[in-house]
Amino acid sequence: MKKMKMFILLFIVLISLALALIKVNDIQSIKIEDKKAYAALINKEEHGFEKEERNLKGKTIIIDPGHGGKDVGASGQMGTLEKDVTLKMARNLQHELEKRTGASVILTRDKDVTVSKKERVELANTKNADLFISIHFDAFTSNEVNGITTYYNHGTDRSLAALIHRHLFEQDLGTRDRGVSFGDFFVLRENTKPSILLELGYISNAEDEKRINSQTYQTQASTAIVEGVIEYLSN
Ligand SMILES: [Zn+2]
User: Fold this and answer.
1) Domain, as residue range, for 19
2) 103 plus 210 within the same structural domain
3) Which tens digits make up the pLDDT trace of 139-163?
4) In angstroms, rounded to a whole number, what is the distance separating the alpha carbons of residues 138 and 146?
5) Cα 170 to middle of ligand 1, angstroms
6) How far away, in angstroms, is 233 Cα from ligand 1 center?
């Protein structure tokens, strides 16, 4: 009888060992990608990383699609109107920002209507905005000129402009970096909130015009701006 008990005990120990070995093997056979995903999941659960992506709750961001209504803005050789692409970009940006940051995002216009510059700036005040971003596309008499420029007016907004601009060129936008500049624009000059104006390409340049209309560009630019906004408002 004693022998029988010993045998059963040994059997149980062996089975446990085998099960443990299978478990170790299982873990080792997880692909590197899966391990990363698993680690991210654990991190998310333990440290709330998912929250970090949406940590701009309570912040208000105003996106200002340039022109609109009677004011068409610049126009391209293929017929692109600035007022249409600024609205398209603003909507993309609003969607990305709301999804990723949880911030409250307000557009100065969400359709093709005329809105005065004064009304645009006033919205930043009445909504007590944390950030105001105006979207534009350039035009020039020479159709050779292309690229992106980021403008600020108040000296205190220079670093904000530089930060967003840096994020834009971290993306492979395939256009010229025209740098960060001081700009005497009404919507910046009269703004009491942190504000910048983006000239996201030249409609008057055929290549830029084509690029501006592409979904790839719209996505890359809005991703870059959202990342810049997160960095700026998280500090
Ligand atoms: Zn414009």
Assistant:
1) 2-50
2) yes
3) 888 888 889 999 999 999 999 999 9
4) 8
5) 24
6) 26
